Amino acid sequence: MIDRSSLIPKFSLHHYWHQKEHFALAVDTYSQWSMFAVEDGSFEFEIAASTGVASHGEIVICPPHVPFKRTITSPLSFHFILFTWENEPLDMFTEENIFMGKIHLHDTKRLSSNYYYLRKKAEQFTPADQNLKNHILKDIWLLHCEEMNHTFSFTEIASDDHLMNKAAEYLSQYAENTLSLKSLADSLDLSPVQLTRQFFRAFACTPMDFLTSIRLQKAKNMLMETDLPLDQIADNCGYENGFYFSRVFSKKMKISPSAFRKAYRV
User: Could you tell me which residue ranges the HTH araC/xylS-type domain spans (predicted)?
Assistant: First the structure.
């Protein structure tokens, strides 16, 4: 699966709409990636199998050549953006990697600041203005990536999909145990593939990425705050042994557990 933080979005077109009451087109298809970033109001959307309602603090992303159905449910103020990826990987459009639908940003103060500057530059097109817009778009995207890589809290990321909320709550509650994706899927009357796809649509990450983030945050705290050996930390965080824990930690954090403890413990 693609590391989202390695992607760099680049503006093609930007327009700000204030208190729009209805869309001129109930469905449209764009030749580039599109983004509807909501400042106020709300709208319903359907992009392939991804559906929901987007409001303040939420952004809806649609891939190229995919029908984007939408209906305004309350007067909508939003940024309409067409963009590309500067470094789009060749496998971007495989079923495993392509993403679409709604993302939610929790740092609304920072998001509002970005929106303020986007509004100021909405109808300005000098090279300096375009550079600023690209900087803001990149900042919004990296904010999303940072929040996804941060410790997941079920209460913070609850989605419109109640079944996937149940799955996330289960993973959060039993992260320290040995968990089986198949067992979780069976309990929800889904196949593992169905669970992974539906979970990804709800939270923009796989169930195992979600679980790994929770486990690694606990491991980081234990590395910084205790003298426990790696095998014991591994056992407390749901990993079968210290070697496997160390391999997962090093891959995700780009630093070994021992080096992390040495660098961050005070």
Answer: 165-263
